[in-house]
Amino acid sequence: MLKVLEVEGAVERIASRWQRTLRPWRYDEERVERVTELRRAEQAAMVEYVITDECRMAYLRRQLDDPAAERCGRCDNCTGRRLSTDLDAAEVEAAVAYLRRSDVVVEPRRRWPVGVREVSGTIDEALRLQPGRALSVYGDGGWGNVVRRSKYQGHRYPDELVAAAAALITRWGPDPAPQWVTYVPSTSSAELVPDFAARLARTMRLPLVDVVRRTRTGRPQKEMENSAQQFRNVFGAFTVRGSVPATPCLLVDDIVDSRWTLTVVGVALREAGSGPVYPFVLAQALSSS
Ligand SMILES: [Zn+2]
């Protein structure tokens, strides 16, 4: 977006920052609508290409304004020869098993966001998260689909996710190993995460220590437009109450997006006396940055 605004002369880059120029600028709604309409027409043409029963080459050439668009005699519609799209069940199963073993690393954030007043520079190493793990990418063919379905239905994360999470953590083997489990209280779907964290703790034979509280209700992180907004939405929104073990901790949440929630809760836990904090989430959002 900033690059576009720069081309239009509305902002300029100064060292590593952006600044508004004095040049007047307004959002060109007409042009945007024109371009959007064009893109919609292109999308419709792509769909049509898939379902058409005319020669596909002729269709493409006509889309490109070729007046001499004739039947190619080679495509599936010309020859009537269809390739099979049936998948070998054993291969599909092997692919899913592969995806389910592909853990996603959740790298700790090392710097506070730029351009907010409350904090700046690097996050004190003693307060930072340890590298964590995600069981899947949200909606992927491994566990991601199971996570999405459960979250959407809002009932309960199934036992197979608890077992898969425990297996991943064993495989991963954080060192020093976490001695207790806690979780991020969510705004929506209130019961999903605590319930999952409790069952995971039981499976791992670790105590669940419920110490993180929300002090205010933020909007869902996915509604925020950028990292600084996501940070503001959660900064100061959590507090830690009760007695916090001084040993390493596993911090559980279901979906990680900007990592600001985990980062901020991690800092609160360390400040309250916790040992190193390892985040674990069921899925990484696709938009993660
Ligand atoms: Zn053809």
Task: Write a compact overview of the structure shown.
With 289 residues, this protein is an alpha/beta fold. It has helices at residues 2-7, 29-51, 56-63, 76-79, 89-101, 144-153, 159-172, 192-203, 227-234, 260-271; strands spanning 11-14, 17-20, 104-106, 132-137, 180-183, 212-214, 238-240, 249-256, 277-284.
Descriptive overview:
This protein is an alpha/beta fold and 289 residues long. Helix content is 38%, strand content 15%. The protein contains ten helices and nine strands. The chain has a five-stranded mixed β-sheet with strand order 3-4-9-8-5. Strands 1-2 form a two-stranded antiparallel ribbon. The two termini are 16 Å apart. The mean pLDDT is 91. Zinc ion (ZN) binds next to α3 and α4.
Keywords:
10 helices, binds zinc ion, five-stranded mixed β-sheet, alpha/beta, 15% strand, 289 residues, two-stranded antiparallel sheet, flat
| Percent strand | 5-15%
- Strand line-up across the major sheet: 3-4-9-8-5
Give the ordered list of helices and strands: HEEHHHHEEHHEHEHEEHE
Distance between the termini: 16 Å
Ligands (ions, cofactors included):
zinc ion
Please give the count of helices.
10
Helix content: 25-40%
**Measured on Cα atoms, how large is the radius of gyration?**
25 Å
Which spans have pLDDT < 50 for at least 5 consecutive residues? none
Number of strands: 9
Q: What class do helices, strands and sheet pairing give?
A: alpha/beta
Outline type = flat
Biggest sheet layout:
5 strands, mixed
Average predicted confidence as pLDDT: 91
